[in-house]
Design goal:
This protein is 54% helix and 13% strand. With 221 residues, it is of the alpha/beta class. A five-stranded parallel beta sheet has the order 2-3-1-4-5, sandwiched between helices. It is globular and about 50 Å long.
């Protein structure tokens, strides 16, 4: 696969209720309206294939304490490997723009920073599951964790295992994402998600536009 043929891999990260679903849809709409002859692949983790969605159901439902963090990390990585091999890499090989709801950063935060799984072990799982694949751009939607949890409770969810882990857990999740963004500033764009959805979308589009210009996919305006 040549660099010229490869598409772009964009991921969204953030705590519960940070607005990832809304912003992914808004970005999809903008790309379809402003970029000709490009195919989009929208996907999510855990999930993205039939087999990986089965793992998702095991991970996101049931009692908060049903899995150890290390077990979660291995299940996430197993799901991710199927996703990368069967969905993400083929889409990138076709030249598609892949937009994914969560990827490796979530595992490093939820199971590593919060759960205590050693980062070196998580890096090893990344190497096995991703085979060198790293997002071109990660959009971290940052907001107060209590406000995010309130959003999820208000809208309701049938995947509530992580939401039920409590306020202290989610405060630590937010801090983990903040520190991850500070560690990888060239890849992770931190966006204030506590504002209106339209204001957040403007920042999301600005970050993606800069990536598209840098990759020569659109002209600088």
């Amino acid at each position: 696969m040549t660099a010229a043929m490869r598409g772009l891999f964009i991921t969204f990260e953030g705590g519960e209720g940070s607005g990832k679903t809304t912003q992914i849809q808004q970005l999809k709409n903008w790309i379809e309206s402003n970029i000709n002859s490009v195919n989009l692949c929208l996907t999510r983790e855990p999930g993205g294939t039939i087999e990986a969605e089965l793992i998702r159901a095991l991970l996101l439902n049931g009692a908060a304490s049903k899995w150890q963090p290390a077990t979660e990390a291995m299940m996430m990585s197993a799901s991710r490997h199927e996703h990368v091999i069967h969905v993400i890499k083929p889409a990138l090989a076709r030249g598609d723009i892949v937009i994914c709801d969560r990827f490796i950063d979530s595992t490093h935060v939820y199971q590593g920073y919060v759960g205590g799984v050693d980062y070196a072990l998580l890096d090893g799982l990344d190497q096995l599951s991703c085979q060198g694949l790293v997002p071109d751009l990660t959009l971290f939607l940052d907001m107060d964790s209590n406000a995010g949890l309130a959003r999820t409770i208000q809208r309701g969810s049938n995947e509530s295992r992580f939401e039920s882990k409590g306020a202290a857990f989610h405060q630590k999740v937010r801090q983990g994402f903040v520190e991850r963004a500070e560690k990888y500033p060239d890849r992770i764009a931190k966006i204030d998600a506590a504002r209106s959805a339209d204001a957040v979308t403007m920042d999301v589009i600005a970050a993606v536009r800069a990536l598209l210009v840098a990759k020569g996919m659109i002209a600088a305006s």
